């Protein structure tokens, strides 16, 4: 209940389809105190389609929808050793590294915090 109710009220889920099959999804959660800010909670792409640009397209398309819905800023966290994802977030989508949270998900589970202003996103 703790996760589902807030997600219903403050969350968004977008999917990517290839013909009739769902091949990816992305989840966002609005900040409760700053409704113009959203958190990218997760991105999932079908195993056989990874590395082909589906994830980047899904993130980019969903960011455009969020911008149309008056979201001004998006924040995410990523494993600091996931260099491929960090490169996509920075170089293709324009996210900026802001901070590192040590032990965010337990001992040794660090996260890089990245943000994007949608005011400049096209």
Structure, described:
- The protein is of the alpha+beta class.
- It has three helices and six strands.
- The protein has a six-stranded mixed sheet with strand order 1-2-3-4-6-5.
- The model has no long low-confidence stretch (mean pLDDT 91).
How is the secondary structure organized here?
Layout: H1 4-10, E1 11-18, E2 21-30, E3 37-45, H2 54-68, E4 73-78, H3 83-92, E5 96-101, E6 111-117
Summarize the structure.
Helix content is 26%, strand content 38%. It has 122 residues and is α+β, with helices and mostly antiparallel strands.
Order of helices and strands: HEEEHEHEE
Instruction: Please summarize the sheet with the most strands.
Output: 6 strands, mixed
Give the fraction of residues assigned to helices.
25-40%
Please state the structural category: alpha+beta
- Rg value: 14 Å
Estimate the global geometry from the Cα principal axes. Answer: globular
**What average pLDDT do the residues reach?**
91
Distance separating the two termini: 36 Å
- Note the total helix count: 3
Task: Quote the beta fraction.
Answer: 35-45%
Number of strands: 6
Which labels suit this protein?
single chain; 122 residues; alpha+beta; 6-stranded mixed sheet; 3 helices; globular
């Amino acid at each position: 209940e703790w996760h589902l109710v807030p997600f219903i009220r403050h969350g968004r889920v977008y999917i990517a389809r290839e013909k009739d099959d769902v091949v990816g999804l992305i989840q966002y959660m609005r900040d409760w105190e700053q409704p113009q800010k959203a958190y990218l909670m997760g991105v999932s792409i079908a195993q056989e389609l990874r590395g082909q640009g589906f994830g980047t397209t899904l993130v980019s398309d969903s960011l455009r929808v969020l911008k149309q819905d008056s979201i001004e800023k998006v924040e995410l966290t990523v494993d600091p050793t996931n260099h491929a994802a960090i490169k996509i977030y920075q170089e293709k989508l324009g996210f900026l590294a802001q901070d590192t949270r040590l032990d965010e998900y337990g001992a040794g589970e660090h996260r890089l915090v990245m943000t994007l202003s949608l005011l400049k996103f096209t």
